[in-house]
Amino acid sequence: MARRKKGRIFLSVITLAVTACLLGGCLAEDGAVVEDRAEQTERSSGSHKFTVMVYMCGTDLESDYGAATADILEMCEADLNDNVNVLLYTGGTGEWQNNKISSDTNQIWQVIHEDIVCLEEDIGVRPMTDPSTLADFISYCVENYPADRNALVLWDHGGGALYGYGSDEITGGDSMQINEIDNALEKAGVKFDFIGFDACLMATVETACMMGSHADYMIGSEEIEPGSGWYYTGWLNLIGEDASVSIEEIGKTIINDYIRVCGEESPGDGCTLSMIDLAEMDNVYDALCVFSSNAKEQLDRDNFRVVSRSVSNTRAFGDESYDTIDLMHFAQNCDIEGSEELIAAVDRAVVYFANSENISNSNGMTVYLPYNDVYSFDGMLEIYSDIGLKGEYTEFIRAFANIVAGGQSYYGSNTPVEALNGGDEPNGLADFSEWYDFSWFDEDYVSGYEGEYEENSYSGEDLVVEDRGDYFALALSDEDWGIINDIQMQLFYDDGEGYIDLGTDNYFDTDYDGALMVDYDGFWFTWMDNIVPLYISVTDDLVEGYIPCELNGEYVNLVVRWDEDGVGWMEGAVRFYDNGMCMKGLLPLEDGDKIQLLCDYYTYDGEYDDGYYFGDPFTYDSSEGLEYDSSGEGDYLLYYCLTDIYNNTYYTEPVILTFEE
């Protein structure tokens, strides 16, 4: 198993990239209570003029894959009449894959007679993630194309409640967070019939609460969107036939077409889309506050384990760094007073939703809960304040984040280095100074959990494995196992100079008395005759993993998925971003692509050394799938990583097994 130094490699999954056709040159020379329902009805039954505004920040979705152009073509295929105006604001991409739209300046276009016509040819390069750019586009549409019905679609990457919307490829910078979207909509002063996100992860309770004063309905996805995104022809045809059609009917068409087309074009991707009645969001928030108050009482009674286990068992969406979970599923998992009322409130608010067959426990609305990445919580507090979320809900979130932070600072847990060298670190509280700069951290509150932390932690001495003849085993009490949320095996290969990290597997087994079997059968994952570093994760009924590599010279993670028969295949590749955005879909793999596997490398003392090339480069062949085969002769080091209720990781004493031909 050869390695060649590449330099430090950061392998965390940040976002997903698109699968879409290149369509270059195809175009010829696209919180508060809302007003009373009677006012909505009046607005939808007047002169029946309908203006659809599409804010299209193209980014690499367009420059690399023509995804925006493909959607514009879908708009042009719609049968529109004079009562419907579809207006596009374009920008934010290095190259448009058609012969009309310029990447040198932002522009405004109108869809007319199966084509697009430029209304504003040279606006200049303005950041698409600047709220004033969005506000000015909305104002332009209202002033020049007044209508009694208005809709807004925000097209691009999405990053949920924490990171917001949009990533401008030209100007760079941060995304437009949801409080900034709020500012843009407030400045524009338009009440929309619906606002939709053709972007990932935006169907959040925080976004919906913010939207209440700006629209009647919101449409968004809990999950990462596949590359095809929304299908525009169907619902625009619906408006073209009757501009007074109900918004709920429009929403159902958008959602049904989206699920259908994504199933046809990206059958391996999980997809969700939901329509939220924003008039119900005050009721949702009130129920959430009651639920949160009772959940905080659980925390105050040193019963963090109940809440943490509920979070761990709740459907999560996107990468774990987004800390985004299904709100209704979370309430269903909690035996807390107020759960049923919150479930009912969410059920009333989500008037229509659908998801692909491989997505379970999706109910149309997510919530942010800082569990995997509490360091990012500070950024959320300003958002809460700006959009008017406060009281019992935010007090619960603060308390939860504090307990997680305290638990992660407690060094009763060990590290791989300590496990490798005997694991005799003492129990005790770590220095909390790393948290002092965070506005939400409350040392007095965390210190009140000291006894709980001492009971619910391990030292390296606790995780010594026993030789039981044919295998090694880790025996813990039922009480000790009760604080463990996840178990994964980690495997390394001894190449004579140190250890190559071969990855993780979520599979584990126990013996006759419930002890964890620390064992390895000598088989690992191979692909095109190459042993591959592979890291497996399980979300409900979806098993997937990633292989770190260079794809045609670009750092990516190849996404592996398994069917119910255990057959694995390469679904696509994940591209890395540094602004928190989550991209639609996956990078497609094509025969002839150049693959260079990557690996992490550790010294014999267990210290991380660096990232390296792993083996020789090879060429992708779509006929070759993932196999489970002998990993070959040599020495293998393995241990199990146990993750507790505070997201601490504990490593068992390692075992070294030798395999011979």
Describe the 3D structure:
- The chain is of the alpha+beta class.
- Helices cover 28% and strands 28% of the residues.
- The strands form five sheets. Strands 1, 16, 17, 21, 22, 23, 24, 25, 26, 27, 29, 30 and 31 form a 13-stranded mixed β-sheet that branches.
- α4 (131-144) runs parallel beside α6 (178-188) and α8 runs antiparallel to α9 (247-265).
- The chain is globular.
- The two termini are 16 Å apart.
Short description:
The protein is α+β, with helices and mostly antiparallel strands.
Q: Count all strands and give the number.
A: 31
Strand content: 25-35%
Helix content: 25-40%
Shape: globular
- Please give the count of helices: 19
Biggest sheet statistics = 13 strands, mixed
Could you tell me the radius of gyration in angstroms?
26 Å
Coarse structural class: alpha+beta
Average of pLDDT? 87
Give the termini separation.
16 Å
- Would you identify the regions where 5 or more consecutive residues have pLDDT less than 50? 3-46
